[in-house]
């Protein structure tokens, strides 16, 4: 089952993104500033703390939903791979050796 499969990379990046948002949220809790720097793309903007908190919560919710969706897709792909392996081993017996998950 070689070939190009970008899913694990996307899954890892989503998980890292979720952790980064959690870290940013924790840093904001520790901060006592009323105006904080918030990165939007490649630019930092000075924004009120309350607005940053709201944006971070929304971003965390979105990241969690994306991660959940990717986990479901991963399970589906793994199930399809297992079924294809059964078919291929049934057809070719020991003359093939497929990679493990």
From TrEMBL:
UniProt keywords, alphabetically: Chaperone, Coiled coil
Record's GO cellular component terms: cytoplasm; prefoldin complex
InterPro entries, alphabetized: PFD_beta-like, PFDN4
UniProt entry tagged with the keyword Plastid: no
A GO BP entry: protein folding
Coiled coil: 49-87
A single GO molecular function term of this UniProt record: unfolded protein binding
Domain of life (superkingdom): Eukaryota
PANTHER family reported for this sequence: PREFOLDIN SUBUNIT 4
Family: Belongs to the prefoldin subunit beta family.
Name used for this protein in its record: Probable prefoldin subunit 4 isoform X4
Species this protein is from: Ananas comosus
Lineage, opening ranks: Eukaryota, Viridiplantae, Streptophyta, Embryophyta, Tracheophyta
């Amino acid at each position: 089952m070689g070939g190009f499969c970008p899913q694990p990379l996307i899954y890892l990046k989503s998980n890292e993104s979720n952790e980064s948002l959690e870290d940013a949220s924790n840093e904001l809790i520790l901060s006592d500033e009323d105006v904080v720097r918030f990165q939007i793309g490649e630019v930092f903007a000075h924004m009120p703390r309350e607005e940053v908190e709201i944006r971070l919560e929304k971003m965390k919710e979105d990241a969690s939903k994306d991660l959940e969706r990717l986990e479901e897709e991963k399970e589906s792909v793994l199930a399809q791979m297992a079924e294809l392996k059964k078919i291929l081993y049934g057809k070719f017996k020991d003359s093939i050796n497929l990679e493990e998950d």
